[in-house]
Amino acid sequence: AQTVTQSQPEMSVQEAETVTLSCTYDTSESDYYLFWYKQPPSRQMILVIRQEAYKQQNATENRFSVNFQKAAKSFSLKISDSQLGDAAMYFCAYRSVEIGAGNMLTFGGGTRLMVKP
Amino acid sequence: GAGVSQSPRYKVAKRGQDVALRCDPISGHVSLFWYQQALGQGPEFLTYFQNEAQLDKSGLPSDRFFAERPEGSVSTLKIQRTQQEDSAVYLCASSLGVGTYNEQFFGPGTRLTVL
Questions:
Q1: d(CA B115, CA B102)
Q2: Domain residue extents for chain A
């Protein structure tokens, strides 16, 4: 079974600064997807960024980018030019690509990001 | 609406009561997932449907939990004889299909409080 670990329960960043959220995972599979989701107080999970394990290039979406280290099983999220609206819970998630695996997501415990004005 | 909807948004139940939580996925989405999110934790998988077929229910915590999707669209998660440990947010997600990457779109969740 796969596990996802987020070791930072809370992080704080000054508005306009950069912050990095950490995530490690454990799997025996060679191909998979990794995700970062944002969950604001409204509880609606919003996909921030995804990475396919077979791609060596790190994914980027505007101010959000990842540092994917496959050998180390590490998948960190960097948020540049932090904005007040970035304040939320952030969850790292894993999904198998194997047929029959059901495509369910395995989530980490989350990191609460606070943005200071 | 174009998104996943869930009802009710909040449910308070007395211990021992039965509850039913509804999920309306995005129209045309084949796959539907239920997750349970305890306070301060990440969501945990409960069960998965492909159309009306429940293909995986390995995450259901006990036989008090039952889910159905009889016509392959709307799904209901039923919890019988609720216990305090059932208090959580129940999230529903849907995706277009299976196989290669299909993004899961989440609903706003139902917060269940068992007194």
A1: 38
A2: 3-116
Q: Where in chain B are the domains?
A: 5-114
Q: Which CATH class is domain B5-114?
A: mainly beta
Domain A3-116 classified CATH 2.60.40.10?
A: yes
Of the candidates A44, A97, A109, the beta carbon closest to that of B106 is on A44
How would you write the pLDDT of chain A (117 residues) with one tens digit per residue? 789 999 999 999 999 999 999 999 999 988 899 999 999 988 889 999 999 999 889 999 999 999 999 999 999 999 999 999 999 999 999 998 876 666 899 999 999 999 999
CA distance A18 to A105: 27
Counting one residue from chain A and one from chain B, the pairs whose CB atoms sit within 8 A come to 59
Chain A residue with the nearest C-alpha to that of B89:
A43
